[in-house]
Amino acid sequence: MNIHTIANHLNGIGDSSSTGFRFDCYPIDGDVEVLQVNVVGREEIPIFVSVTENQVLCISYLWGEEEVNPDSRTEMFETMLGLNIPMPLSSFAKIDDKYVLFGALSLDSSLLEIEQELSVLSDNCLEVIDEMVDFLK
């Protein structure tokens, strides 16, 4: 499994996606191979996919630390912890000064399972932003 296989699958499914979504994928050059996946109609929240030796990692950036209202930061963390378990296939993390939502899959995952993970992660991003808007400036 590599990002090119994933990109070819997602770009090739068009309207026949089992999830009802269409995808546009773009490899990003760098030391680590990364695939930017845009869910058509949700391009403002891309998902970045990388394949490591032991997992397929899907990450979406939500907001930066500078966007968090400092007076409600602790309450935001409590809300994030409360949302972590009931939110399927996604977890919160922080990369540098950016808050992210991520999901990880086995290298043995099928392309259909990866497509489903990306769809759920995209849905979860929208729900999280809607839930967390009161904690942001």
TrEMBL record:
Recorded superkingdom = Bacteria
Stored Pfam families? DUF2170
Q: Which InterPro entries match?
A: DUF2170
Q: What is this protein called?
A: Cytoplasmic protein
